Amino acid sequence: MDATGWTAFSMAVFSLEYIFQLLPAELLAAWSLRRQARFPLRATAACLLSVALYALLQRFSPSISLGPVFDTLLAGWKYLFVFAFTVLCLRMCYAENIWSVLFCCTAAQATQHLAHRVRDLFTLGLSQGFQLPLFLAVTALVFPAVFTAVYFLFFRKLRNRQFPNINNRNMIFAASACVILCLFIAVHDYAISGTEGRVAFDLAMILVCFFILCYQFGFLDHSWQQAEYEALQQAFQSARKQYEMTRENIEIINIKCHDIRKQIRYLGREANVDESALKEITDAVRIYDATIRTGSPVLDVILTDRSIYCDRNRIHLGCMVDGACLSFIHSMDMASLFGNLIDNAIEAVMQLENPEKAIINLTVHSVGGMALIHCENYCRPGVTFEDGLPVTTKQDKYVHGFGVKSIRFVAEKYGGTVTLSQEDDVFSVNISIPIPVPISRSENA
Question: 36 φ, ψ to 5°?
Fold first, then answer.
């Protein structure tokens, strides 16, 4: 390729630089979103259509100036139109609602413009007409560097997370800020003159872009916390309803079992019934009459219910529990803590292929003013931890994964701590909660 051909090629690339910068930023921002079927094909088609649309708009833009104001509005409309088109294209590529896609696209637009302004600071002394190859080389270095920095500062937060329901007003604000940025792209050439003015303007725009990213992801962090709080509240309500139903069912079962035992004794005395058959019936009744006594009525109900379930599913649930040392914990907190603790262990052992490892051991006792809870069970190796908690392997992370968070929430509510660990194929949960010291009347006085 001769010099003339290279210059023509460089100019063609330069004329399409906006779309070549925006699309990678959008794909980077949306990297962790759930993808539609045939994603590679959809993404390729979306990129080609976006580039083609922008090339057409560039090709048919007016070749003569119609005045600074009109030229600015026309250029701004062009950028906005292309941006809106890429939002729709990405919506077709990802299995997320439009607000989640718009969130990523606005963050990508801010990232693109931030990198654009950083690049301008490095190329203020270059003449685009005679040093275009050097200009493109600087671009090739600056944009990957800025994109990488933004990814580690912001976009990486989206890994293994799903978008909560985003408040529309906040998203509209972010989108509006992005629209203003698009308009500023065109204003630069007409309204800013002089090296000092361009440097000041570029620095100001860099700060604006950074502020928009901080605002968006700060709001997203708040939305995640709100979603987790609401999920925890729903989990507590569910635990409350389950506890009430379980307590009533166990009371009914105890009454029925008492009546059945009386009937069995009568049959053994008065009727000619085979003793082995009576023993089989007695053993079957004993499964449902195995009420666990811990010193805590609430814990008795929870453990009895789980014990019945474990017996049905051939799971050994071993309990050495002093429930009296947990008397200071509210009944609903107790139901949530131990319900989630044992349910998680049951779910883990039921996934094992070896039935001999379907074992769960639970101990509760007090030592030195601390209530100590220990639960261990066999599990599959290779559990991944994040922020001290195991990462759920289920796709819907807003529905699942809150069991352990509920356990930690209850423990921390009473000033306690939770430690989770895995050694080979044994998963352990250790909870320590300080036992409140009763205040005597003399101390109160």
Answer: -75, 165
Q: Give me the residue spans of the domains in the chain.
A: 3-230, 292-444
Q: What is the pLDDT of residues 244-266, one digit of tens each?
A: 656 665 565 555 555 555 555 55
pLDDT range class, residue 273, cuts 50, 70, 90: low
Q: Tokens 């696209």 belong to which residue? A: 105
Helix, strand or coil, per DSSP, at residue 199:
helix
Give CA–CA dist 303/321, Å, rounded. Answer: 10
Q: What is the pLDDT of residues 22-59, one digit of tens each?
A: 999 999 988 888 889 999 999 999 999 999 998 888 77
Stated pTM of the model: 0.59
List all residues 6 or more positions away from 161 whose beta carbon is below 8 Å from its beta carbon: 32, 224, 397
Give yes or no for residue 178 having a pLDDT over 90. Answer: no
**CA dist., res. 202 & res. 46, Å (int):** 31
Alpha-carbon radius of gyration of the chain = 33
CB-based contacts of 290: which residues, under 8 Å, 6+ apart?
304, 307, 308, 311
Please, are residues 182 and 79 in contact by the beta-carbon 8 Å criterion? Answer: yes
Phi then psi for residue 166, to 5 deg, are: -80, 130
Angstrom distances, CA of residue 32 to CA of 41, 47, 297, 395: 18, 18, 46, 13
Match domain 292-444 to its CATH number in 1.10.10.10, 3.20.20.70, 3.30.565.10, 3.90.1150.10: 3.30.565.10
User: With bands split at pLDDT 50, 70 and 90, how would you rate the model's confidence at 396?
Assistant: very low
Cβ atoms of 431 and 325 within 8 Å: the answer is no
Q: Which amino acid is at 26?
A: E
Give the helix ranges, DSSP H, for 275-314. Answer: 275-288, 297-312
Which among 377, 374, 380 is positioned nearest to 362, based on CA atoms? 374
User: Shortest CA distance to 303 belongs to which of 325, 286, 320?
Assistant: 320
